[in-house]
Amino acid sequence: MKTIILNASPRKTWNTAKLLKSAAKGAKDAGAEVEYIDLYDLTFTGCRGCLLCKRKGVERCHCYWKDDLSPIIDKIFHANTLLIGTAIYLGRPTSRYFELIERLHFCSLSYDDYSNYFTGKVNVGMFVSMNASKEFYDRLYKEKFEGYAKELEMLNGEVELYPCFDTLQVLDYSKFNMGSFDETKKKEVHEKNFPKDLENAYQMGKKLSQKSSD
Ligand SMILES: Cc1cc2nc3c(=O)[nH]c(=O)nc-3n(C[C@H](O)[C@H](O)[C@H](O)COP(=O)(O)O)c2cc1C
Question: Hey, where are the domains in the chain?
Fold first, then answer.
């Protein structure tokens, strides 16, 4: 039972990473073999349009571009569970997230009839961290992010989306021009909610890793 964890946020010790590390503990407790990867440590781009994945007679669900991402794509297709996290940047997942998804999705897409070449099953947990409140998310982001999560149904498993609201972006707001945030309120919300988010991430990592063995 393998769980691959991908951090598509550049900060390796902050909110998204903390959620993913908690989910990793859950996956380990479910008995999964866990691999955690910071995507920003790797060198890669989005799809280069080489179309080698569409050549006749080649192995499907494999990205042929030679860089750090292609082995990760192989690992995703051979895992039981994928736990992926991104911060929200300007209302969207990060650019790294999109670079990954472009290549993962395209190499499993048939250009004969737009069916899915992938016949395996990988459960997915998608963690999204943001400055926005739940109210703002529900109004402006929810539908879009449910759409990004839905795209991961190409892996044929269960897909769960976990939005984490109102994150602490810096430790000391007084050092920055970030006047639209009330530091006291941010810290209060963080202290109240973030431990619950970590616990929920743990349970989600555990459940999705367990389910893959059912
Ligand atoms: C370039 C950039 C753009 C951002 N855009 C948004 C945004 O549109 N909406 C939002 O709610 N938060 C936005 N944020 C805040 C981050 O999503 C939030 O702080 C997140 O929890 C950061 O994740 P991290 O701690 O893992 O780095 C942005 C942050 C950066 C650096």
Answer: 2-211
Ligand 1 centroid, distance to 87 Cα (angstroms): 5
Q: Whose CA is nearest to atom 4 of ligand 1?
A: 89
Which residue's structure tokens are 């009330």?
182
Residue 32 is which amino acid?
A
Q: State which CATH number among 3.90.1150.10, 3.40.50.920, 3.40.50.360, 3.60.9.10 fits the domain covering 2-211.
A: 3.40.50.360
CA distances from 117 to 18, 28, 82, 140, 155 (A): 34, 30, 18, 33, 10
Q: Give the whole-angstrom CA distance, residue 193 versus residue 182.
A: 16
Mean pLDDT of 95-119: 98
Nearest CA to ligand 1 atom 20: 130
pLDDT digits (tens, 9 = 90+) for 34-93: 999 999 999 999 999 999 999 999 999 999 999 999 999 999 999 999 999 999 999 999
7 Cα nearest atom in ligand 1: 26
**Distance from the first to the final alpha carbon of the chain:** 11
Ligand 1 contacts (CB < 6 A) are 9, 11, 14-17, 87-91, 129-132, 167, 169
- CA neighbours within 13 Å on the CB side: how many for 176? 11
C-alpha 107/C-alpha 63 separation (Å) is: 6
Q: Tell me which residue of 128, 126, 127 sits closest to 140, measured CA to CA.
A: 128
